[in-house]
Design brief:
Strand content: 5-15%
Order of helices and strands: EHEH
Strand order of the largest sheet: 1-2
Number of domains: 1
Largest sheet: 2 strands, parallel
Shape: elongated
Number of helices: 2
Distance between the termini: 35 Å
Helix content: 25-40%
Length: about 80
């Protein structure tokens, strides 16, 4: 199977951790955006109790394989 998305940059909104992990394993760089709070018009987020440290750890885990090959990963939480 070829990695047709290797070397691409993917912009993921409503960041789904498993999608980000899969994309980084296939060689993409990720720009991930999510809201870390509930919005009154929609049901509370499934992960609403996550802390900034939890999110940073998820990003670190998702980028381990890719960052070893491609360079630097900058995360601001």
């Amino acid at each position: 199977m070829s990695n047709r998305i290797a070397g691409e940059v993917e912009f993921v909104t409503g960041t789904a951790l498993r999608q980000v992990i899969r994309l980084t394993q296939k060689g993409t760089d990720i720009i991930a955006v999510d809201i870390h709070q509930s919005i009154s018009e929609i049901p509370p987020l499934l992960y609403a109790d996550l802390t900034a440290d939890d999110i940073a750890e998820s990003v670190r885990q998702a980028s381990i394989n890719h960052s070893q090959d491609s360079g630097t990963c900058l995360v601001t939480v």
